[in-house]
Fold:
Amino acid sequence: MDWLTDLLRPLDTLSQIPLYSVGKTTITLGTMLYLTVLVVALFYATAKLKTWIVEGLLSRSHVDLGVRHAIGAIVRYIVVAIGLVIILQTAGINLSTLTVLFGALGIGVGFGLQSITNNFVSGIILLLERPIKVGDRIEVGDVHGDVVNISPRATTIVTNDNIAIIVPNADFISSKVVNWSYTNRDVRFNFPIGVSYGSDPEQVRRILLEVAQAHRGVLKEPGPSVLLDGFGDSSLNFVLRVWTREFSTIPGVLRSELYFSICRAFKEEGIEIPFPQRDLHIKSGTLNVRQVSAQEPDQRR
Structure:
Protein backbone atom coordinates (compact mmCIF):
# COMPACT_ATOMS: atom_id res chain seq x y z
CA MET A 1 0.00 0.00 0.00
CA ASP A 2 3.02 2.26 0.17
CA TRP A 3 2.83 2.84 -3.56
CA LEU A 4 -0.80 3.98 -3.25
CA THR A 5 0.19 6.40 -0.47
CA ASP A 6 3.00 7.75 -2.60
CA LEU A 7 0.56 8.16 -5.50
CA LEU A 8 -2.04 10.06 -3.46
CA ARG A 9 0.47 12.27 -1.64
CA PRO A 10 0.77 14.78 -4.55
CA LEU A 11 -3.02 14.92 -4.84
CA ASP A 12 -3.33 15.58 -1.12
CA THR A 13 -0.72 18.32 -1.37
CA LEU A 14 -2.55 19.84 -4.34
CA SER A 15 -5.86 19.81 -2.50
CA GLN A 16 -4.34 21.79 0.38
CA ILE A 17 -3.45 24.76 -1.81
CA PRO A 18 -5.20 27.80 -0.27
CA LEU A 19 -7.32 29.91 -2.59
CA TYR A 20 -8.82 32.63 -0.37
CA SER A 21 -10.05 33.18 3.16
CA VAL A 22 -13.51 33.92 4.52
CA GLY A 23 -13.13 35.23 8.06
CA LYS A 24 -10.99 32.68 9.87
CA THR A 25 -11.80 29.94 7.36
CA THR A 26 -9.37 29.19 4.54
CA ILE A 27 -10.87 27.89 1.34
CA THR A 28 -8.58 25.38 -0.38
CA LEU A 29 -8.73 23.71 -3.75
CA GLY A 30 -9.92 20.53 -2.07
CA THR A 31 -12.73 22.43 -0.39
CA MET A 32 -13.87 23.83 -3.72
CA LEU A 33 -13.88 20.38 -5.31
CA TYR A 34 -15.78 18.99 -2.33
CA LEU A 35 -18.38 21.74 -2.53
CA THR A 36 -18.76 21.42 -6.31
CA VAL A 37 -19.35 17.66 -6.22
CA LEU A 38 -21.83 17.80 -3.34
CA VAL A 39 -23.79 20.77 -4.71
CA VAL A 40 -24.14 19.11 -8.12
CA ALA A 41 -25.23 15.88 -6.43
CA LEU A 42 -27.71 17.83 -4.27
CA PHE A 43 -29.40 19.52 -7.23
CA TYR A 44 -29.51 16.23 -9.16
CA ALA A 45 -31.04 14.36 -6.23
CA THR A 46 -33.65 17.06 -5.55
CA ALA A 47 -34.66 17.10 -9.23
CA LYS A 48 -35.26 13.33 -9.00
CA LEU A 49 -37.16 13.90 -5.74
CA LYS A 50 -39.46 16.43 -7.41
CA THR A 51 -40.11 14.05 -10.31
CA TRP A 52 -40.95 11.24 -7.88
CA ILE A 53 -43.36 13.47 -5.94
CA VAL A 54 -45.16 14.66 -9.09
CA GLU A 55 -45.24 11.42 -11.08
CA GLY A 56 -45.12 8.87 -8.30
CA LEU A 57 -46.30 9.93 -4.86
CA LEU A 58 -49.15 12.23 -5.99
CA SER A 59 -49.94 10.66 -9.37
CA ARG A 60 -52.83 8.59 -8.01
CA SER A 61 -54.37 11.45 -6.06
CA HIS A 62 -57.03 13.83 -7.34
CA VAL A 63 -54.61 16.77 -7.08
CA ASP A 64 -54.30 18.77 -10.30
CA LEU A 65 -51.04 18.44 -12.24
CA GLY A 66 -50.18 22.10 -11.74
CA VAL A 67 -50.65 21.79 -7.97
CA ARG A 68 -48.47 18.66 -7.93
CA HIS A 69 -45.70 20.56 -9.69
CA ALA A 70 -46.03 23.42 -7.19
CA ILE A 71 -45.77 21.02 -4.23
CA GLY A 72 -42.78 19.29 -5.80
CA ALA A 73 -41.04 22.62 -6.43
CA ILE A 74 -41.61 23.81 -2.86
CA VAL A 75 -40.27 20.55 -1.39
CA ARG A 76 -37.24 20.72 -3.68
CA TYR A 77 -36.39 24.30 -2.68
CA ILE A 78 -36.67 23.45 1.02
CA VAL A 79 -34.42 20.40 0.65
CA VAL A 80 -31.90 22.40 -1.39
CA ALA A 81 -31.77 25.14 1.26
CA ILE A 82 -31.23 22.65 4.09
CA GLY A 83 -28.73 20.66 2.03
CA LEU A 84 -26.64 23.73 1.23
CA VAL A 85 -26.39 24.62 4.92
CA ILE A 86 -25.28 21.07 5.79
CA ILE A 87 -22.74 20.96 2.96
CA LEU A 88 -21.19 24.28 3.97
CA GLN A 89 -20.93 23.22 7.60
CA THR A 90 -19.40 19.83 6.77
CA ALA A 91 -16.88 21.61 4.55
CA GLY A 92 -15.69 23.54 7.61
CA ILE A 93 -17.08 26.91 6.52
CA ASN A 94 -18.35 28.96 9.44
CA LEU A 95 -21.70 30.37 8.32
CA SER A 96 -21.58 33.18 10.85
CA THR A 97 -18.77 34.75 8.84
CA LEU A 98 -21.02 34.82 5.79
CA THR A 99 -23.97 36.47 7.52
CA VAL A 100 -22.97 40.05 6.70
CA LEU A 101 -22.01 39.11 3.15
CA PHE A 102 -25.24 37.24 2.51
CA GLY A 103 -27.25 40.06 4.09
CA ALA A 104 -25.77 42.69 1.79
CA LEU A 105 -26.07 40.37 -1.18
CA GLY A 106 -29.66 39.57 -0.29
CA ILE A 107 -30.61 43.26 -0.23
CA GLY A 108 -29.10 43.82 -3.65
CA VAL A 109 -30.65 40.71 -5.12
CA GLY A 110 -33.97 41.60 -3.51
CA PHE A 111 -34.13 44.94 -5.28
CA GLY A 112 -33.02 43.44 -8.57
CA LEU A 113 -35.23 40.34 -8.50
CA GLN A 114 -38.33 41.65 -6.75
CA SER A 115 -40.34 41.35 -9.96
CA ILE A 116 -39.24 37.73 -10.43
CA THR A 117 -40.01 36.97 -6.79
CA ASN A 118 -43.44 38.58 -7.14
CA ASN A 119 -44.22 36.46 -10.19
CA PHE A 120 -42.93 33.32 -8.49
CA VAL A 121 -45.07 33.82 -5.38
CA SER A 122 -48.06 34.69 -7.57
CA GLY A 123 -47.52 31.49 -9.55
CA ILE A 124 -47.60 29.40 -6.37
CA ILE A 125 -50.84 31.15 -5.36
CA LEU A 126 -52.37 30.39 -8.77
CA LEU A 127 -51.36 26.74 -8.59
CA LEU A 128 -52.68 26.28 -5.06
CA GLU A 129 -55.86 28.38 -5.13
CA ARG A 130 -56.59 27.59 -8.81
CA PRO A 131 -58.58 30.68 -9.84
CA ILE A 132 -57.46 29.66 -13.32
CA LYS A 133 -56.30 26.29 -14.58
CA VAL A 134 -55.02 24.69 -17.76
CA GLY A 135 -57.82 24.58 -20.34
CA ASP A 136 -59.72 27.60 -19.03
CA ARG A 137 -60.91 30.33 -21.37
CA ILE A 138 -59.80 33.59 -19.76
CA GLU A 139 -59.54 37.29 -20.45
CA VAL A 140 -56.89 39.39 -18.70
CA GLY A 141 -56.32 42.93 -19.90
CA ASP A 142 -56.50 42.86 -23.70
CA VAL A 143 -55.43 39.18 -23.88
CA HIS A 144 -58.19 36.67 -24.61
CA GLY A 145 -57.46 32.96 -25.08
CA ASP A 146 -57.02 29.47 -23.61
CA VAL A 147 -54.59 28.66 -20.78
CA VAL A 148 -52.17 25.97 -21.95
CA ASN A 149 -49.50 26.11 -19.23
CA ILE A 150 -49.01 27.58 -15.75
CA SER A 151 -45.40 27.74 -14.56
CA PRO A 152 -44.05 29.29 -11.34
CA ARG A 153 -43.07 32.48 -13.21
CA ALA A 154 -45.56 32.99 -16.06
CA THR A 155 -48.69 31.60 -17.69
CA THR A 156 -48.97 30.77 -21.38
CA ILE A 157 -52.19 31.75 -23.18
CA VAL A 158 -52.97 30.78 -26.78
CA THR A 159 -55.34 33.06 -28.70
CA ASN A 160 -57.77 32.09 -31.48
CA ASP A 161 -55.06 33.12 -33.97
CA ASN A 162 -52.79 30.42 -32.46
CA ILE A 163 -50.49 33.05 -30.98
CA ALA A 164 -48.91 32.12 -27.65
CA ILE A 165 -48.76 35.02 -25.19
CA ILE A 166 -46.63 34.76 -22.03
CA VAL A 167 -48.32 36.65 -19.19
CA PRO A 168 -46.47 37.22 -15.87
CA ASN A 169 -48.29 35.55 -12.99
CA ALA A 170 -48.41 38.79 -11.00
CA ASP A 171 -50.90 40.18 -13.55
CA PHE A 172 -53.44 37.54 -12.51
CA ILE A 173 -53.17 38.54 -8.85
CA SER A 174 -53.08 42.33 -9.20
CA SER A 175 -55.62 42.83 -12.02
CA LYS A 176 -59.13 41.70 -12.92
CA VAL A 177 -59.36 38.32 -14.66
CA VAL A 178 -62.43 37.08 -16.53
CA ASN A 179 -62.65 33.28 -16.48
CA TRP A 180 -65.21 32.16 -19.06
CA SER A 181 -65.02 28.51 -18.00
CA TYR A 182 -64.46 28.70 -14.23
CA THR A 183 -67.30 26.26 -13.51
CA ASN A 184 -67.84 24.73 -16.99
CA ARG A 185 -67.48 25.51 -20.67
CA ASP A 186 -71.13 26.53 -21.21
CA VAL A 187 -71.33 30.18 -22.26
CA ARG A 188 -74.31 32.33 -23.27
CA PHE A 189 -74.03 34.83 -26.12
CA ASN A 190 -76.45 37.62 -27.07
CA PHE A 191 -76.90 38.48 -30.76
CA PRO A 192 -78.89 41.62 -31.67
CA ILE A 193 -81.26 41.55 -34.69
CA GLY A 194 -83.37 44.38 -36.11
CA VAL A 195 -86.48 44.03 -38.32
CA SER A 196 -88.80 46.54 -39.95
CA TYR A 197 -91.80 47.89 -38.06
CA GLY A 198 -94.17 46.14 -40.44
CA SER A 199 -93.02 42.71 -39.28
CA ASP A 200 -95.02 40.47 -36.94
CA PRO A 201 -93.01 40.17 -33.66
CA GLU A 202 -94.37 36.68 -32.96
CA GLN A 203 -93.34 35.51 -36.41
CA VAL A 204 -89.86 36.97 -35.92
CA ARG A 205 -89.47 35.20 -32.58
CA ARG A 206 -90.56 31.88 -34.10
CA ILE A 207 -88.05 32.19 -36.95
CA LEU A 208 -85.18 33.10 -34.64
CA LEU A 209 -85.91 30.18 -32.32
CA GLU A 210 -86.12 27.74 -35.23
CA VAL A 211 -82.79 28.95 -36.64
CA ALA A 212 -81.06 28.70 -33.26
CA GLN A 213 -82.47 25.27 -32.44
CA ALA A 214 -81.36 23.94 -35.83
CA HIS A 215 -77.73 24.98 -35.31
CA ARG A 216 -75.42 22.19 -34.16
CA GLY A 217 -73.49 24.39 -31.74
CA VAL A 218 -76.47 25.71 -29.77
CA LEU A 219 -77.29 23.75 -26.62
CA LYS A 220 -80.77 22.26 -26.23
CA GLU A 221 -80.64 22.71 -22.46
CA PRO A 222 -80.67 25.51 -21.55
CA GLY A 223 -82.37 26.35 -24.80
CA PRO A 224 -82.28 29.58 -26.83
CA SER A 225 -84.59 32.50 -26.11
CA VAL A 226 -85.64 35.70 -27.87
CA LEU A 227 -86.19 39.10 -26.24
CA LEU A 228 -87.87 42.15 -27.73
CA ASP A 229 -85.20 44.62 -26.69
CA GLY A 230 -86.84 47.88 -27.70
CA PHE A 231 -88.21 50.17 -30.39
CA GLY A 232 -85.40 51.73 -32.39
CA ASP A 233 -85.46 54.66 -34.78
CA SER A 234 -85.85 52.41 -37.80
CA SER A 235 -86.46 48.90 -36.47
CA LEU A 236 -87.89 46.59 -33.87
CA ASN A 237 -84.84 45.40 -31.95
CA PHE A 238 -84.65 41.76 -30.84
CA VAL A 239 -81.93 39.87 -28.97
CA LEU A 240 -81.29 36.19 -29.70
CA ARG A 241 -79.76 34.50 -26.61
CA VAL A 242 -78.09 31.13 -27.11
CA TRP A 243 -76.00 28.81 -24.96
CA THR A 244 -73.03 26.99 -26.47
CA ARG A 245 -70.14 24.79 -25.43
CA GLU A 246 -68.55 23.96 -28.77
CA PHE A 247 -68.26 27.60 -29.87
CA SER A 248 -67.37 29.13 -26.50
CA THR A 249 -63.85 29.94 -27.75
CA ILE A 250 -64.93 31.14 -31.22
CA PRO A 251 -68.10 33.20 -30.74
CA GLY A 252 -67.48 35.10 -33.97
CA VAL A 253 -67.94 31.92 -36.00
CA LEU A 254 -71.21 31.11 -34.23
CA ARG A 255 -72.46 34.68 -34.78
CA SER A 256 -71.64 34.53 -38.48
CA GLU A 257 -73.32 31.16 -39.05
CA LEU A 258 -76.47 32.22 -37.20
CA TYR A 259 -76.68 35.51 -39.07
CA PHE A 260 -76.34 33.71 -42.42
CA SER A 261 -79.19 31.37 -41.48
CA ILE A 262 -81.32 34.25 -40.16
CA CYS A 263 -80.89 36.25 -43.37
CA ARG A 264 -81.93 33.23 -45.42
CA ALA A 265 -84.96 32.52 -43.20
CA PHE A 266 -86.08 36.17 -43.22
CA LYS A 267 -85.89 36.25 -47.00
CA GLU A 268 -88.03 33.12 -47.28
CA GLU A 269 -90.60 34.46 -44.81
CA GLY A 270 -90.69 37.99 -46.24
CA ILE A 271 -89.22 39.64 -43.15
CA GLU A 272 -87.40 42.85 -44.02
CA ILE A 273 -84.17 43.92 -42.37
CA PRO A 274 -84.41 47.74 -42.35
CA PHE A 275 -81.84 50.41 -42.97
CA PRO A 276 -81.73 53.81 -41.23
CA GLN A 277 -84.57 56.07 -42.43
CA ARG A 278 -85.71 59.65 -41.77
CA ASP A 279 -89.12 61.15 -42.50
CA LEU A 280 -89.10 64.72 -43.86
CA HIS A 281 -92.30 66.73 -43.31
CA ILE A 282 -92.77 69.97 -45.31
CA LYS A 283 -95.37 72.36 -43.91
CA SER A 284 -97.40 74.50 -46.30
CA GLY A 285 -97.17 78.28 -46.04
CA THR A 286 -96.23 81.53 -47.78
CA LEU A 287 -92.65 82.50 -48.43
CA ASN A 288 -92.14 86.22 -49.06
CA VAL A 289 -89.39 86.92 -51.56
CA ARG A 290 -88.46 90.49 -52.54
CA GLN A 291 -86.51 91.11 -55.70
CA VAL A 292 -83.69 93.58 -55.35
CA SER A 293 -82.73 95.54 -58.48
CA ALA A 294 -79.14 96.21 -59.45
CA GLN A 295 -79.53 99.97 -58.92
CA GLU A 296 -80.94 99.59 -55.39
CA PRO A 297 -78.18 99.85 -52.82
CA ASP A 298 -77.57 96.82 -50.61
CA GLN A 299 -78.77 97.69 -47.10
CA ARG A 300 -76.51 95.05 -45.59
CA ARG A 301 -73.36 96.96 -46.44
